[in-house]
Amino acid sequence: MNFKSLLAVATALITVNAKKIFIDNDGLASLEALFAISAGYEIVGVSSSFGSSSLVDSAGAASDVLKTYNLTSCIPNYLGAQQPLLRTNETFHAWENLFGDLVWQGAFDASYADSHSWDNVTYDDSKAGALALIEAVKSNKDSDPVTIFAAGMMTTVAQAISIYPNLVKEAAGLYIMGGYFDNQYAQATGNSITIDINTDINLIQDPEAAQIVLTSDWKELVIGGNFTNYLVPSQELYDKIIDKAGSIDLIRSHPYFSQVSNLLATGNYTENNDQQKLPFWDAAILFALVNPDTIKETTDVTVAVDTSFYSPYYGSLKLYSHEWAPKSGYKVANATIVDKIDDEQFYNTVLDVFFKNWTQYCEVHGPVALEI
């Protein structure tokens, strides 16, 4: 048997035995993909949905990441939900007129402008994101059930449940980014960036989908909300990245480091704009998903989402102790809230995955030596 045949056999065995994950997001971040594959997970699909980004920008962000690391041949990028189940741009702003404006309005912002063009976006148009999710779960349910990671609106997952209710039983579980709680003081007294960080648009943009998804009977439902606010970029992290590369000029000029360059901007943390100072939200909970040994503190609760339009908490996550949760008339579900992870290991892994060469991952299912 020649080398190529041995490599094909080894790759097939790795793929069969790898844990499976399907990612739905409104703008895939490079660390989400790199954390997953570095931990030995196979990403069976990415679904790019409307939300904090327009559909083209969401798909474009995923396309950029997959192209940078040469992952397009083994990680398909599908188009997810193009709009919420019920909310529209008009009802979103009508609710704001009643109960106050959100600092971050995502793609519903009147001044939002696309930064990508469909001409430069690579995606799989053979099926919708919800159908791709269903197929991934069904095809792996008996061998290695797929864990679903949803980090934008819950709409795509809600669509999949509506089409195929058994999705909930056949998936390994659901991890979501969203569900901030106990943040009213920060929202009332902070500056705009503080208010933004303590407001959860993922559930607010499509409350009905969030309620459908979160109160389904998952084998495991894990919510990453408040703890992710404390995992943020810093000058110390920037300096370590620059030092490891040798110079910021190399990072700026080397195509492989385009995603790293976007994170660093000028290399001076205090000069970065508010968006670049935002926490590692989605990446933080995905890191916990693929590295469960780093989770230090959790809380088991009962949850639901407020779906009353005439409520200031429309789209907010409601938490209850199991004993005092509603018993009828309002659907609830048990969930695990991640309260704390190993911060040091998180930051060390950020540094580690950025300096591995993933461009041959689709062939060897691992990194190769990085030459810069």
Automatic annotation (TrEMBL):
Residues 25-347 form the Inosine/uridine-preferring nucleoside hydrolase domain. Pfam families: IU_nuc_hydro. Its EC number is 3.2.-.-. The keyword Hydrolase applies. It is an enzyme of class 3 (hydrolase). Keywords: Glycosidase, Hydrolase, Signal. Residues 1-18 form the signal peptide. GO terms for cellular component: cytosol. GO terms for biological process: purine nucleoside catabolic process. InterPro entries: Inosine/uridine_hydrolase_dom, IUNH, Ribo_hydro-like. GO terms for molecular function: purine nucleosidase activity. Belongs to the IUNH family. This is Pyrimidine-specific ribonucleoside hydrolase. It comes from Wickerhamomyces ciferrii (strain ATCC 14091 / BCRC 22168 / CBS 111 / JCM 3599 / NBRC 0793 / NRRL Y-1031 F-60-10).
